[in-house]
Design a protein that fits this description.
single chain, 154 residues, mainly alpha
């Protein structure tokens, strides 16, 4: 280059340095997306916890009647957990359908992108576990409910 055009500014970079510069952008983007995912999961966790706590407070008298008639606290917790899980599974199915549609759209426009099923399985399992734990925390408070006290409250 110096023989052909000595006045031309020229700088030589290694391929490794160029790849490292490009990878830095992807790592930064990945970090931002991961943080946003954790924040979203925390919002979903706290929302589920709040809704189940509210439902438990509203249905405390009903649970007292059920326990007075012979239902165990575990039966009530299990029934409410199934009810909460049903709602969570519907939301999870809708979210997976939207994600699958977006992946098809992205992979059609850029043949380089390849999303495996493992990403979806891990994401769905994480959301399902977080929903179950968020629902179990207030539901386990039902185990300490005294039927007589629950019947006296309005």
């Amino acid at each position: 280059v110096n023989k052909v055009a000595p006045d031309t500014p020229f700088q030589l970079f290694s391929l490794r340095a160029n790849v490292a510069d490009i990878a830095w952008g992807f790592r930064g983007f990945s970090l931002v997306i991961s943080v946003l995912g954790v924040v979203g999961l925390l919002f979903a966790f706290s929302g589920t916890h709040a809704v189940v706590s509210f439902l438990m407070a509203q249905r405390k008298r009903e649970f007292g009647v059920r326990m007075a008639l012979g239902a165990s606290a575990w039966q009530i917790v299990w029934g409410m957990l199934i009810q909460t899980s049903r709602t969570g599974l519907i939301g999870l199915a809708v979210g997976l359908a939207v994600a699958a549609g977006l992946v098809r759209l992205l992979t059609a426009s850029a043949a380089i992108l390849d999303f495996g099923a493992r990403l979806f399985v891990v994401g769905a399992a994480t959301v399902l576990i977080a929903t179950t734990v968020a629902a179990l925390v207030p539901l386990l408070g039902t185990l300490r409910t005294d039927p007589a006290q629950a019947l006296r409250t309005e």
